[in-house]
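[scheduler] slot 2 assigned
[scheduler] job type: sequence-to-structure, two independent chains
[scheduler] chain ordering preserved from manifest
[runner] begin chain α
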Amino acid sequence: MSKNSIGVAVIGAGMAGKAHAAAYRAAAGVYDTTLPEIRLVSIADVFEPLAESAAKRFGFERHDTSWQALAEAEDVDVVSVVVANRLHREIVEGLLAAGKHVLCEKPLSDTLEDAEAMVAAARRADSIGRIGLTFLRQPGIAYVQRLIEEGTLGNILHVSGRYLTDYGCDPQAPISWRYKGPQGSGALADVGSHLSYLIEMLGGEVEAVSGGVLSTAITSRPKPLGNVVGHEHVEVSEEREPVENDDYAAFTVKYANGTAGTFEVSRVATGHANTLAFEVYGDKGSAKFDFDRPSEVRVFLNDGDTANAGFRTVILGPDHPYWRGGFAMDAPGVGVGQNEGFVFQARAFLEEVAGIPEGESLPRVATFETGLRNMRLLDAVARSAQRQGAAVAVKES
């Protein structure tokens, strides 16, 4: 890597890959600390028309059709890996061995064995390996985290959360890699891998999981007649394939401090396009966040004024995390969504690669060890479900 520039590439030109590409393009324009020049070098995808169109759309110099091309490219320093989970290990290990800095999309992999191997590879590497936990970059969620850490809510008594989506609610939605793999690799891994890191942010370390339930509501899906990108529908054939993994999951956690929480995830929650919501209750106050209204947080403070007690709506603005200087128009109430989380994540990763000291940059992107920890929690959910809801300890990562 040149001291004066950082060459960036993205592997995977689907929905999330485009989010990474757009984020790298925008990253230099947020906050006042100066990054080296960011060179948008290549977007790679095995489906070449998709790689070519994404590269043109987001201003990358070229497109490629293999990860190996990027591993060998001397003008590439940083690579985001945004492909099917089962492909992560080979690509990440190859890129780290080639000296590239790697930002891997969640979950880390589709098996604990592969995730453990990726952690080992990152520890051996001279370059940086990080995992994208995008929702930690949401201003509202980061604000709730601050309320917890500063003790404003007091001792946490219990939490609840859900991540409901409906991308799989149509039985005619085409079969894809998302519907293949063992129980636990479906909705639990796809959207639950976001909820898993928020679970420990809200209540602390999880000791055990119980009440695990996994269900498959739509047991077969039609074969596509074209390339499937993200959650998009394409023309399908009359031939169907079995769905192998879970459409819905629910579970309870026991935290190491003795408190508890209940959680559920779904990809068949009709009407919920992308609803991540949680509530955290402390002995001094409570907070609620719902991604349907991402520019606000509901807060209750037990300050003794019973005549005016109740939740109040806090409209996010410059006094909250990520806002001031992070938005071109950083006034209170300006809209915020999931795309901005990718921008802040890309910015934080590039700051670390550029060697900007931690105190002068955004919070660092999570390590592979954190990604493995999250996978261990989800694995405990799957094992609880296999044992008809029995309690399962979350193994140390």
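[runner] end chain α
[runner] begin chain β
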Amino acid sequence: MKLLYIGHTYSIRANQAKIAQLARLPGVEVTLVTPDKWRGPLYDHTADPFEQHFTENVVHHRLPILLAGKEGAYFYRSQLFSIVASLQPDIVHVEQGAHAISYAQTLLALKRFSPHSKATFFTWWNLPYTLTGLRAKIEPFNLKHSACAVTGNEAARSILICRGFERPIRVIPQLGVDLADYDDQKPRVRDPSRFVVGYVGRVTEEKGVIDLVEAIGKSAERSRIILSVVGGGPALDLVKQRAHELNVQLRLHSAVRNEEVPEHLKTLDALVLPSRSTEAWVEQFGHILIEAMAAGVPVIGSSSGEIPNVIGSGGRIYPEGKVEALASLLDALATHEKIRAGLSKKGRERVEHEFTHARIAEKQYALYEWMLAYGKSVAELSASTEQRRMETVVQ
């Protein structure tokens, strides 16, 4: 199985472990294409080359692009067409949304140089949307030439169905974790006089960090709770101000790269993802939750978006925006060691069963095998599209 995998997510080294797991599966040969540079949080200007110590069975092309940092709008220069022509891939997986220009570009390359290939794409988008201009034309083209689709959450699956996509859709997280990264041979010595509650990520209003501060302010255990915030963003000053007003102990650290997260998680007694949905945003996944569960850290999440599906039985959920409910959960964790131990065990087991890089790679592999056996190629989908147009004209 010759697999062509395209996406800017793998421009950073920490995310390449999933690609390596795919390459280790039977008969898989992976060609990875990423932009040669990217702009965004935790991304260097220049893309990281694929780490060959993961596996040697991956060929990595870092190609020049236009509009770096703009996920749906960026596109590759002409080298992408040459790669498609020479590789003749069996399966092509593009990790961009349904109306992404880079996916349309890839499909055009397949139609011209490798029409037998079967294509799929990945999307996180979990809110209804309206398209205008070029993207309104691109999305129908992309959907018509896709053998199937992968979504990162259940809501995104529903959105695709509403957009008229009638082929198979599989809900598979984009990235998992490597449990070995979170194993520590030295057991942490807890200080019973302190209970460290963590938040890791962007500090914005929709991420609900203010709710977390308010909840700690209402907690019966407030005097021993320390709030550790790793990250930055436009709401950070408001967080500091409100923590001062409520006399909440606050420990701040600037944003860190993915591979540095495990060290920060080791300092926590619990992690909270207190996201709040808005008209323009709903939590798409919450990767920090599976990182914390992998580290054995009990997790609490709001009911926003995909969070309840990610946590499952591995943690606690509260209604988003309900500060009193969050405060009660924090008090329960702070005062009951058995609850913490039970959630730590359940969370780790959930990640092992559902969210490791290896498990996610296996799910994707099963989808690729289905595509090879039953999915339609770009040429077949193009022909069926033209046939429908002809039938419409005749009628």
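[runner] end chain β
[qc] chain β: The chain has two domains: 2-176+357-394, 179-353.
[scheduler] slot 2 released
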